[in-house]
Amino acid sequence: MITAGATGFAWHTGDGTTLTTTDPGSPYPKQTITHDYSSGTYTASVTTTWGATYSVDGGAVVDVPGTTTTDGPPVTFTVLQAHTVLTNLYD
Q1: What are the structural domain ranges in the chain?
Q2: Considering the entire predicted model, what is its pTM?
């Protein structure tokens, strides 16, 4: 039996930082991978590393030599900074 799966993720944040994890992440509100940005426009992407194991007739599980990677499509986004403003003291 051959079992293949993602073994690592390189999150290219677009600001020169790369976060390396074995976790694919979770959506809000339980996000597990985060990054703080300053205001600006960024292009981010992820590179996924894939690996595999195999066993013969239920025997020992052995790593398949080597890995391969796939690059996710880049996404461009703009980060804005919001400020609260009190417009009426008596509202």
Answers
A1: 2-79
A2: 0.81
